[in-house]
Amino acid sequence: MASTGSHETYYVPEQTKLPFFASIGLFLTVFGLGNVLNDIQAAESTAVSTWISLIGFTLLSFILFQWFSTVIRENHAGLNSDQLKRSYVWGMAWFIFSEVMFFAAFFGALYYVRNFSVPWLGGEGDKAITGELLWPEFEAAWPLINNPDSQLFTNPHEALNVHEWSVSFFASFLPFWNTVILLTSSVTVHFAHTALKAGNRKGLINWLSLTVALGVLFLILQAMEYIEAYDHYGLTLDSGIYGSTFFLLTGFHGFHVTLGTFMLAVMLARAIKGHFKPDDHFGFEAASWYWHFVDVVWVGLFIFVYLL
Hints:
- The protein is mainly alpha-helical and 308 residues long.
- It folds into 2 domains: 1-80, Helix Hairpins; 81-307, Four Helix Bundle (Hemerythrin (Met), subunit A) (Up-down Bundle).
- The chain has 9 helices and no strands.
- Helix 6 (174-197) packs antiparallel against helix 7 and helix 7 (201-231) runs antiparallel to helix 8.
- The protein is globular and about 70 Å long.
- The termini are far apart.
């Protein structure tokens, strides 16, 4: 579609049913997962709900693959104008901003609980009467090991903290090693980007392969940490506000690491196929932006969840 004046030609893709089917896949995925949780709470079979969520996720994955393949073909055909490419940049920027707000809500909840709710229950501040009436023997401390109502929540054995891990030397510093891994991966993905801009495809593939491997290693170590937290510390989602904030923050971050690792793996496959050019590789840049964001979030998690 051509416009008048000084504006360039803006490519308008052909009509497609992909967004319609993607919305169906997304609906089935969320609907199925929601029913899985309801079935678990009601102690009923989750088979049907699980199949609904799997069908929805499979449909959504297939549609997204077709959708992104179409976008890539259009770009290789030279149909994407500079104006359209700028819209991709803004779209990714707003997506990352929404993710920042997502994690800001959870960090805000952690701050509110630690600095307001728990002290109030312990008899401090203007709302201390809450603790005096309901749980007069409650002691405010963070991490909150002894919940005010042990009938509703299970109490973990002790706090999950990098200073207190004692099962082994390696396990005692597991969150620290994960921090080292993610910070290193930010460096390697930067080196991959530098190699791409220099036209060094071998360097791009090697550095990107290392980044993907580091992402997988992070997820393995986080799984080990969760097993240790459950078995040794008795820390679960049912462990009150401490268990809830810990698993929600680290769990959602782990999901984002999984998504970022998958994105980089796709970029690696495309790099091996020779898709990127030194001056035209926004798909790779978008994935690297997302990966740097994931790394920054983990640094905040390491400081506020483990250290403080």
